[in-house]
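Handout, section 4.2: multi-component inputs.
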Amino acid sequence: MISPIWREAARQTLPVLFGYLPLGAAFGIVAIEVGIPWYAAAAMSLIIYAGAGQFLATTLLAAGAGLTEVAVATMMLNSRHIFYGLSLLKRFQGAGWRKPYMIFALTDETYSLLTSQTTYSHALGFRISLLNQLWWISGTLIGIAVGSAQLFNSQGIEFALTALFIVLTLEQAKRLKQALPFIIALVTGLSAVLLLPERHLLLGAIGSASLLLLVHYRYRQRRENHHAV
Amino acid sequence: MLSDPVWQLILVCALATFATRILPFVALSKQADHPLILHLGRYLPPAVMLILVIYALRDFSPLTAGWQLNMGDNGLPLILASLLVAGMHVWRHNALLSIVLGTVAYMVMVQLGWSV
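Output:
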């Protein structure tokens, strides 16, 4: 008998399952191909748990990169997570023993699901985080076991993550009923696609969106002070 | 085990990743109720969500190098499936239905070599 809260977490993470299985499998296949032992590849999905970060790590491993280089490159690639944390400071308050794990497991997809809850509870949020990593590790193990041999033609299944982001954007728009953050995202997102190299794209867009929101905050505060006088 | 370069690299990578995730919680733990943090908590997630959509669609190109309609995985199937997801979601408000339909449509289009 599966409890309702686990069932709800499974239902919400199902699109992530569709995305993480093939992507995790792709990671497992690449890791084995560059000569990483299978248990080390599995350990990476367990203790690093960052999609692009793990692909970068395999490249650096294969290239024999130094540890400092690895640390700097990984932090550059993942620094958008700093902005994720900023917007979850309040929400994660009171999460207790679950909090360290939920911070550790904060991927793009988990962040998206956690910030899209209408009635947020730590119990559900924690299960969503946990299941997402379980899907990622399962995908990795499938990739390790199956290698490049295909079980079924899954080409295109990773579109599930794109679809998830589209749906969550619409949900956020319905809830917020304000155009501002979407205008900011269009401007920074499209500029980043046009101007920045692939590896700095997300950081550039999310970083400058945060900056614009800071400017907006300052502007609004100044106007309120002005009216108060 | 820790003298093995593979494990050293994995450990450094894990610590660096965790550092970027935990930094704001450590540096700003006392500021959770600051109006600026609340402002970001309200407006940043929707902005990030749309940025992730733009990022996922970044390789879209409607035409191939030879000025033909692009039916590959970064061509029309990508944009048609995205519109299907958005349309279904506005119409039925069923997240899972929109995602499954869109993904199946995309898979069929890229696997069967969809043509007009």
